[in-house]
Amino acid sequence: MHVRWVEGGEKFSARWRSESGAPPPAEIVVVDDGLTADEAHRLANADKAMLWRGDFQNARQLIKAVTRRADRSGRRHAPKSPVEAFYLHRQRQARRARLLGKLLVPMETGYVVPLRRAPDVREACLAAYGPDSEPTVVSLREMLGVIGAHEWRINGVEVPGLDGRIHPHYGVFAPVRGEYVELVARAPLPSRELAFDIGTGVLAAVLAARGVESVVATDLDPRALDCARDNLDRLGFGDRVRLERTDVFPTGRAPLVVCNPPWLPAKPTSPIEHAVYDPGNRMLKAFLDRLGKHLAPGGEGWLVLSDLAEHLGLRSRDELLGAFDAAGLSIVDRLDTRPCHPRASDPDDPLHAARGVEVTSLWRLAVG
Q: Which residue range or ranges hold the Methyltransferase small domain (predicted)?
């Protein structure tokens, strides 16, 4: 897909790039440092995209100012229930993303940004997008995400339960919530022979670090698999973990099957949100319904799941326990922990009432 605009009386076009799947803007106006935050907010609300030709650092300041205006205008009324608070929060997030996505920056072939004081984004864009062959236009919001993700990839994220660092790739969810990793790091292993990691991420490395001789890790997302391979090789576990691109389970049975599915039953709006939102509990139900067919006799399935959805009114505890029963699964034990990330104690977070009482659990499940 391409975008088109008129600049200096001439017609131009470039490839449109959007990892979130946003459609190309129908109307583009060319702007520069003379654009005020109020005018930018007005143009974005009028569904007009703005192609930036000014100073790159000024554009960064402008998008912060537009963010503040978008947040203020999005606060209409107080929610009446936790579930209403959740959906209002999602609506505000979507509206903010739509507005901020209207500020665009050009990139020449080779990911060169032809703006004053623009950073060198070539390495970051190549890692995120792969090779390019033509000029492109991308939202400044996405470009800043690409830059930030590349910094994370270079520096890595310390994972206490792993005693090592994970280097997340762009578009792959980073293990910033270490409490769930620590649950897997301390739960009693039923076997060290073989384990399946469903929806691979950091947990395959944790299992290998605990001495599991062979791990089969699955995912459908090529980026997640590439990221896992990179990190497993960095950590020295590459020879003990086999990655398989498949939906949920690999073939065969294992004495231990681990799954950390997306925790909230809602629709994702971007590729990376698939790690957080699970429409209709699809992955959760698939894991539970098919777990018995992939557990070796006497084996355990470990389900790592937050109860945030319960506090938000998106799923009840009775529904979860009923899903265990329907799948013919019994509870061997449950390990609990509380989150320690900043939002859990932030009273200004729109979901604070639910986050403040959230508990993350590792459910040890068995057949029968």
A: 196-306
The ranges assigned to domains in the chain are: 2-152, 158-367
Other CB atoms within 10 A of residue 306 CB: 20
74 confidence band (pLDDT: 50, 70, 90): low
Alpha-carbon distance 121 to 332, whole Å?
50
Condensed to tens digits (0 to 9), the pLDDT of residues 53-73 reads 999 999 999 999 999 998 887
DSSP letters, 100-148, are HTTEEEEEBTTTB--STT----HHHHHHHH----S-EEEEHHHHHHHHH
Structural contact between residues 252 and 294, judged by C-beta atoms closer than 8 angstroms = yes
CB 192 within 8 A of CB 219: no
Q: Please state which of the four CATH numbers 3.20.20.140, 2.60.120.10, 3.40.50.150, 3.90.70.10 is assigned to the domain occupying 158-367.
A: 3.40.50.150
Q: Tens of pLDDT along 141-160?
A: 999 999 999 999 999 988 87
What's the CA gap between 52 and 177, in Å, rounded? Answer: 36
For the question of whether the overall pTM of this predicted structure is more than 0.85, the answer is: yes
223-230-304-259 Cα dihedral, nearest 10 degrees: 70
